[in-house]
User: What shape does this take?
Amino acid sequence: MNKPVQFIRGLFSGNKLVIGIPYAWFALLVAIPILIVLKISLSEMEMTSVSNMIDWSSGWPKIKINFESYQFIASDTLYVKTYISSLKYAIITTILCLAIGYPFAYFMARSPKHMQPMLLMLIMLPFWTSFLLRIYAWKTLLVSNGVINNILISIGIIDTPLAMMNNSFSLLIGMVYSYLPFMILPLYANLSKLDIRYLEAAADLGTSPFKAFWLITVPLSKAGIIAGSMLVFIPAVGEFVIPELLGGPSTLMIGRVLWDEFFSNNDWPMAAAVAVVMILLILVPMAMFNKAEAEQLGGKA
Amino acid sequence: MATAPKPNAEKKIAEKEVLLKIDGLTKIYDGAVKAVDNVSLNVYKGEIFGLLGGSGCGKSTLLRMLAGFETPSKGKIFLENQDITDIPAYQRPINMMFQSYALFPHLSVWENIAFGLKRDHMPKDETAARVEAMLKLAQLTKYAERKPHQLSGGQQQRVALARSLAKRPKLLLLDEPLGALDKKLRETTQLELVNIIEDVGVTCVLVTHDQEEAMTMASRIAVMAEGYFLQVGEPDAIYEIPNSRQVADFIGNVNMFEGIVEEDEADHVIVRCPECVHYVGHGFSGTEGMSVGVALRPEKITISKTKPKGQYNWCEGEVVEIVYFGDHTTYHLKLESGRVIKAQEINNTRDLSCGLTWGDHAYLHWNNLAMVILTH
Assistant: This one.
């Protein structure tokens, strides 16, 4: 038997190929880029191009590791502050999206069956317009001589324009507006599957509808809440466009710092290090959370 | 209608206290479909009352109205003489064991059983004591910390029962309580369930499409079709003295003969049918010349190779089918007219050669109290 030939044949057999495609995709477009970013973050300023990072002088590839960028991130309070501020805005956005999106999804799931496709369509409708355009539209609504201020002044509710632009208010409006569908969709998918009999059973056992919501509906939609929160929280942490267009000097977000490091300071190792720390900030709580979930699921078997 | 000796149990029940009174209850869907049509009923304290019917007969709608999940279009529901028609489900002293149980998947067995007690703000130690008692009653003490999906079907069923009994409801509703179990488990669970219910002494209304389940569990049965009751009575009365062709046909197997009353005396009735002449050994409240149905259950027919004596209560034909069930065998006999009559014989010996085989000519006969005359 010719084992290597068998092995190669096995490699190209249909089912392995099918399984292999997503792995190849993952390796090519996720793992390798992240490794490159990690590598850049560990190199020195002048070694920014990929070919310069590997030292061939001894005949073997030798990678120089330089923790300078990470040390700088840890020592400079600006970065720490920015991370905290990014997390803060991402968390507030997630909570607001949940608070608005949950009732939204709930009533969608409870509305008559023939209405649901239309409601779903309305949720997705904004995606038909450019994201950038929609954020710009908020700008025209929120600026001091914008639509909202003009209306409020003309009907005499306020004398001076409200400062709604380039602060945390405008930032959060933009973030919540943009990410709300990502909260609603998984919640709707989850809530529409909720078996109404559980609520009947709760009512039968003496639970008022309000209490039954908190004791039955919310715990049973946990998976949807988690999925929605992840879908909002993760991109919100690294968001660049919304803070750039709607944020102000007070709304520090890591996406903007990244941009500055890359394009203003041209400091690739620093920018890469900032990005790596951001990934860790998101990954660590997610991994911990997944582990807890897996343990809970483990009890199911 | 037949006037066979009626069991005096009905008189006994009449002396009992009425727990649930349903008065002209009607449920109309979409303004037209009458799911439940003007149903009135008394359920007495301590009995297990069975609602039996095919799917879509309105039995589940009736049960859901009792639980408070559906609002009646018309009519009233009284529990211990108190009108509960407009009281929401969560305030009724009625608990329900749901079809396929509806156990809360995110709560343990213990929490599931305690759920209703906690809603009543029962003191903690009292709740714990009650839950423990329920666990013991349902033989679930070992499984208290498990989640519902970690239990077998039979165990889940007992949790559902324990949960619905924990609040000591005045009335327990059972919606197809054994529907989700396989046949073997169902038989043992049936008796277990009845024993637990009788231990607790709770009054039950049981909904089922399975006549065997209704017969074994219920002390009285209402046969339902198209939203109303066809017959209400004790299981044996429903089986042996059905009041209509529909009930006779629905409950168990039956051979139905159509004929004309030829002789109507105080002690006997003779009905002439195309297939045979029935001599019924008791009187009936009809007149001569009336066209009636005669219902004859297969197990009341004897099959033999020799021609019976006399001119009544027998017919002959060819054996076209022999269905072996283990404990009994059903013979299908094709009469000259082409009609097929079923006869059931108990296999009381281990003799494999019963002497009859496909294509044999055989005689069926029955005694003069075996059949029921039906006028409806």
Q: What stands out?
A: Residues 253-374 of chain B form a domain with the OB fold (Dihydrolipoamide Acetyltransferase, E2P) fold (CATH 2.40.50.100).
